[in-house]
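One thing: could you explain this record?
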Amino acid sequence: MKPELIRLALFGSPIKASLSPRIHRAFAAQFGLEIEFQRIETTAEDFSSELEAFRLAGGVGCNVTLPLKQDAWRLAGDSTTGVRLAQAANTLVYQQGVGWFAHNTDGVGLVADLTVSHRIELSGHRLLILGAGGAVAGILGSLLAAAPQEIMLVNRNLERAEKLAQRFGSHGNVTFTSWQDISSQGGFDLIINATSLGHQGEAPELMPSLFAPAALCYDLNYYLASQPLKKLCGELARPYIDGLGMLVEQAAKSFYLWTGKRPDTEAVVTSCRAQPG
């Protein structure tokens, strides 16, 4: 008997080059599942109507990317505690009687890539996060749950960093600083780049004093957008990891929420690295 078709989608803009369809089809193939995974490019103004049209067409789950993650949280009938803290969702699951239930798998995907794939210890260590936007809000809760000594946010808009630190402050030691003052705060074990500079062909300004002796840099970007920071870390002789593993890990958490199946992520990361297109 032919498996039932599972209708899934990605909402956001721009998403033409997104790897999500490829990743989820690879996951489905591991279990012999039949899925349809659409890219639905939409604005914030049209997101609600597009989401409803998707549901009426049989859609049962979707990923949501920029610039719609806050809208996904607001539109959901219910959500996890982590989503309410982040005020953003990247995964929606349709539930009878509830409507769309919102999750955020970005943070757990990042922590899985760091701690499982790369065996990086977070507990008791100092972390520096570059940026204080929605991407950071989505990962802070999961990083704090790993019990680091401190997470410091550095951002050009200091007020935004302060507000984010205050929102998450009851969950761990979250501090903030400006780019002007960052040079005196050094000795971080892990530096996480959550800025969009790579998409403009630029890298954040990192000086050697920010790195503890065994420190490394993790970039939420991957492929072309990761190259500027990768090059800088090479010049600084510091280990560097791009965000492709996080992308696949967060997708795997979403896939599990939709299907109850836990896919092999290592094989999919290897495939995406071998054939980036």
Summary: The mean pLDDT is 94. The chain has two domains: 5-104+248-274, 107-242. The chain is about 40% helix and 25% strand.
